[in-house]
Amino acid sequence: MPTITVINGDGIGAEVIPAAVQVLEALNLPLSFQSAEAGFATFERVGEALPRETLALCEASDAILFGATQSPMSKVAGYQSPILSLRRHFDLFCNLRPAQGNGLNVLIVRENTEGLYSRRERVEDGGSTAIAERVITAYASERITRAACEWALKRRKKLTIIHKANVLKETCGLFRERAFAVTAHYPELIVEEGLVDSAAMHLAQDTLNSDGSRYDVIVTTNLFGDILSDLAAGLTGGLGLAPSANIGANGHGVFEPVHGSAPDIAGQGIADPRAAILSAAMLLDNLSYGEQAGHMREAARNTTHTGSTQATTEAIIERIV
Ligand code: IPM
Ligand code: MN
What we know:
Elements: E1 3-9, H1 13-26, E2 32-36, H2 40-46, H3 52-59, E3 63-68, H4 82-89, E4 94-101, E5 104-111, E6 121-124, E7 129-132, H5 138-154, E8 158-163, H6 171-183, E9 190-195, H7 196-209, E10 217-220, H8 222-235, E11 243-247, E12 253-257, H9 274-286, H10 290-301, H11 309-320
Parallel strand pairs: 1-2, 1-3, 3-12, 5-10, 8-9, 8-10
Antiparallel strand pairs: 4-5, 4-11, 6-7, 11-12
Helix pairs in contact: 1-9, 1-11, 5-6, 7-8, 9-10, 10-11
Residues 71, 81, 83-84, 226, 258 line the site of 3-isopropylmalic acid.
């Protein structure tokens, strides 16, 4: 029986993740759940954001359902965002971020292990200069493009490679070159490319014109994918409806809503649970429960959130069972 490790995290994570678990439980599938802790509150209590016991539970499970954790804006000695640690630990190179609505139907496939998230930052000149190294490798560029091509085959067979190679000639240049090299093995696909700034404009424009979706699958580097996926979420119904999956080579996955821990509304029972529920649907897909995942998706997308986490969750469950 597949085991799912459930990590609420901070803030509204403790509201939306239990809601998603309620929906999963209502499906009566042979799944077992174990909960584990991580996040800023955990860090403040035990000195570690992702305790060893949590990692051990994650290692011994088939999928991880993750809420959100608070990321302080400035450096806190010893603190590192647990989602970044999980991505690194399990080498979850593929971040899938679908967005659908308002004329858009796009899957952003974000490289999840390197780029500007390589953690190679330093200060020089006594603190007056700060430098970040953006690491792009042929290996990571090729494997993320391969994953994106496979997804495009299952969708509308169109892939757009998004970069900024006109300025970042070496890093984006390598990403672009390796991405095109991979797509050469997928003659069934229509392959296009675009610059990240104009892609942002086109995403916005496509919703305004509702002239159908220019994009089907987008493959891009880490930070560009982070930003474009929030944009796509905002354009298609907001972060309340934006799920994501972080998948590794062996199929191991962490499933999390795109939204953060929203400390401003935490504890009031008003957080929108649909992004977490849609993330749980991606988790079911990954465990080969595609049919049930489809039901969950449909129910969540057809339910409006009117302000109560519990009421929305119950309405969704009612639509499914
Ligand atoms: C996301 C988040 C994370 C990221 C943060 C919390 C580290 O914004 O999953 O999109 O930047 O990847
Ligand atoms: Mn983000």
